[in-house]
Fold:
Amino acid sequence: MSTRDNEIPGEVPATQEAAVSPASGRHGGTAIRASNYPEPIGVPPTIEWLKVEWLTVDEAYQRSTDNGVSRRLIASIANNFDWRLCAPLVVSRRQDREFAVIDGQHRTMAARLRGDIPHLPCCVFNYDGTAEEARMFIMANRSRKQISRLDDFHAAVAASDPDAMEINDIVTSAGLSVARNTGPNTWKSGEVGFTTSIRNMVRKHGRKIVSAALVNIAEAFPNQRLNNAGSVFLGLVRILANPPEDLDPDRLVTALTRYTTQDWGSFVIGQSGAEDRARAIQEAMLMVYEDVGNEP
Structure:
C-alpha cells in the first residue's frame, strides 16, 4: 500500500508494509559499506502500492506507444496479466497523487486497459525534475542487458515449453547440443546455435528431414567448431526435402567432409537472403556430391 493507506482501493496483502526504504530503519540496523566502494549515489527509494490513476507517462522522454508493436504488447500483457511477472514499476514522485512512470509504462497501460487492477507495486524515487527523470530513463534502458535468443531458448527448455523441448530433443538425438552463447567463437565442438532455423524447418518439412540433416552434420564434422553450420543445415534440408534420384546418404556425408563448416560458408558469400544462401550451398553440395560419385 501507499503511505495513504485509506486511499488505496482493493485488497493489498496485510504482510506488506505501507512504504519500505532501507533508509527508514525498517530492515533493522544500518548496512555496513565496504571501504573500497564509493558512497552510493542518490537516496534509497520506497516501495509502495499506488493507484493506477495516479501514474502518468511523460511523452517528453518516454517511448511512444502509438504503434502496432506497443499496442499488441499492451494487449498481450492485459490478456495474460500475471502477478508473478509484475515487478515493481520505477516511478518518480512529482507531487501529491502524481507519479511519473520511468520504467513500466506497458504494465501501467495494460492495468488501465483491464480496469480490474486498481493498484500496482512501485519503486518510488524523488527526482529533481523532468530532466533528471529523463536521464534516469536513458540510463536504465542503456544498461539493461537484453536476453539473447539462446538464453531465451534454454530458459524455455527449463520451463518445459513444448516447442523448445522438441527442438532440444531433436538436436541431442542427433548427437549435437545447443550452445549457451550466441558467439560462434565460444562454441565447443558439436554445439549449434541455429534453433530458430531448426524450428522453422520442423514446421515446414517435419521432424524426420530435420533430424536427418542434423545427423549428417554430426557425422561429417566431428570434433569441429560448427561455424556456418546454420547455412549447411539449410542446404541439407533443401537436398533431403527434394532429393535427387537414388540419393546415397553415405556419399552425401562423404561429400560434406570435403570441407569444414567454415569453408562451406565461403559458398554463400555475397548472398543476401536466407533462401539465396540455402540455395547456393545446396548447389555447391550437389556439385561435390557428383564429384565424389565420379571418383574411382
About this structure: Residues 1-18, 25-29 have pLDDT under 50 and may be disordered. Residues 149-294 form one domain.
